[in-house]
Design a protein that fits this description.
- The structure holds 2 protein chains of 2 kinds.
- Chain A has one domain (2-41).
- Chain A contains 2 helices and no strands.
- Chain A has helices at 2-22, 26-43.
- In chain A, 15% of the residues are buried.
- By secondary structure, chain B is an alpha/beta fold.
- Chain B has one domain: Aminopeptidase.
- Chain B is built from 9 helices and 13 strands.
- In chain B, the strands form 3 sheets. In chain B, strands 1, 2, 3, 4, 9, 10, 11, 12 and 13 form a 9-stranded mixed β-sheet that branches.
- In chain B, helix 2 (92-104) crosses helix 8 (329-348), helix 4 (237-249) crosses helix 8 and helix 8 runs antiparallel to helix 9 (363-369).
- The chains are: A mainly alpha, B alpha/beta.
């Protein structure tokens, strides 16, 4: 079950990361970068 | 992707933000991972050997739930007592009492077995949205010694997801989050979740080591009715009542509660039902736990002073007296130590298999000298004054 959770989370990270580079508004880029923090902590099972 | 005109976002800004994200991640990871490193415990001269809980159930080997079991064996044969600290890692007087016993107690007859971090995984995280500090410090004569403040339940990294309804091994239906609560998981199960496996290992230890009397140390919020109390399985009620009487004679207010027969999964119920041990649970007041508390800081955990609880007490909302002096950790640990010593004394009056333990600091000694006087220096006994 954990591996499925990690695959889903990693997929979301890739999509959010993709959006970070395609986004044209700086404020949206900043919000996107903030969203990445908990997602990466979760996929690495740190928090 | 949503494209908007007029922004300042570029490829290089994304790279800069990504680097900043990385820096935040490194800092946060360092902080969270530090929670998985146990602050040291320095076994005193009374500790004869240290084993692992996984020695009693090998399913715990290599898991974050495996924890140290300290054995203090006397030169003369006698009975065996178990003291459990850290069932709930957010009740610091519990594990601190166990650590004080490990670092001070000396058994002359029988055995004392101490587990200071019963739910080891719970010491690796704090409760979400509670604002708890990760650590607190106790002043010793050689300087401040750091301890971990943890969570009520097993770290959700180690055991997840929580069900909507948790039906424990004893058949009791509980709220889903209780699935990570060690004191709702007894008698445990070798094939259950991680918390149930810990519960199973502890029950197996009680059976295997032929434990005569088992004491599970806790703390409760000041607005919780079962507080400053000994909760006893019916087999241990006489001992609890007599101990409470002696403690009251000594000026320590403490009540006795009978373990409810229909509330299953708790230590005082399942240990008593599933084994031959005399099962007891002891509660002290922890202002850092309750809903009415103010700012949650390491100072509150150690000093136990909270103006909101003083006001609540004035309005008769609490089950313990609460003055401006609060309930400091010295008082809470001192109460537990005094209660453990008295329970063992009373137990000895009923048996020929005595458990004689010297070196347990009294409540008055802890209040007078401070808990730190009875703890090893921060870097170990050799670094002491």
């Amino acid at each position: 079950m954990t591996i499925i959770y990690q695959v889903i989370t990693a997929s979301v990270i890739l999509l959010v990361g993709w959006n970070l580079f395609r986004e044209k508004r700086l404020v949206e880029q900043m919000a996107t970068a903030l969203v990445l923090i908990p997602l990466i902590l979760r996929v690495l099972m740190i928090k | 992707m949503i494209e908007r005109e007029g922004g300042y976002g570029r490829g290089w800004t994304a790279v800069v933000l990504l680097l900043m994200t990385g820096a935040v991640l490194l800092t946060a990871s360092h902080s969270f991972l530090a929670m998985r490193v146990d602050p040291p415990i320095y076994p005193g001269p009374g500790v004869t050997h240290v084993v692992a809980l996984s020695d009693y159930f090998e399913g715990l080997i290599g898991t974050p739930a495996d924890t140290a079991v300290y054995i203090l064996e006397g030169s003369e044969p006698g009975g065996t007592a178990l003291v459990l600290g850290g069932t709930h890692a957010n009740e610091p007087a519990s594990s601190l009492t166990a650590i004080t016993l490990i670092e001070n107690a000396q058994v002359t007859r029988g055995r004392l077995i101490v587990i200071p971090r019963a739910n080891h995984s719970a010491f690796t995280c704090t409760e979400p949205q509670e604002g708890y500090p990760q650590t607190y410090t106790i002043e010793t004569p050689a300087g401040p010694r750091e301890f971990r403040y943890g969570s009520r339940g097993t770290n959700p990294i180690d055991q997840w997801p929580d069900p909507v309804i948790y039906v424990n091994a004893a058949g009791q239906s509980l709220a889903g989050s209780e699935v990570r609560n060690l004191n709702r998981s007894y008698p445990g199960s070798p094939s259950g979740n991680l918390t149930e496996q810990v519960a199973y290992a502890i029950v197996k230890l009680i059976r295997q080591e032929d434990i005569d009397i088992s004491i599970d140390l806790h703390e409760a919020s000041p607005e919780y009715p079962v507080i400053n109390a000994i909760v006893a399985h019916e087999d241990a009620l006489n001992i609890a009542a007599e101990a409470a009487m002696f403690l009251e004679f000594e000026g320590m207010q403490i009540g006795v509660e009978r373990s409810p027969a229909n509330l299953r999964g708790l230590s005082h119920r399942e240990w008593g039902d599933a084994t031959d041990t005399l099962a007891l649970l002891v509660e002290a007041p922890n202002p850092a736990q309750g809903r009415l508390r103010g700012q949650t800081t390491a100072k509150l955990i150690v000093e136990g002073i909270d103006p909101y609880y003083v006001r609540a007490a004035q309005r008769g909302l609490l089950y313990v007296p609460f003055s401006a002096e609060g309930h400091p950790i010295d008082e809470r640990v001192g109460r537990h130590l005094q209660t453990v010593a008295t329970l063992l004394d009373v137990y000895n009056s009923y048996t020929n298999d005595d458990i004689v333990v010297a070196g347990i600091p009294t409540l008055s000694a802890v209040l007078e000298q401070g808990l730190g006087a009875f703890l090893a220096p921060p870097s170990g006994p050799e670094s002491g004054l």
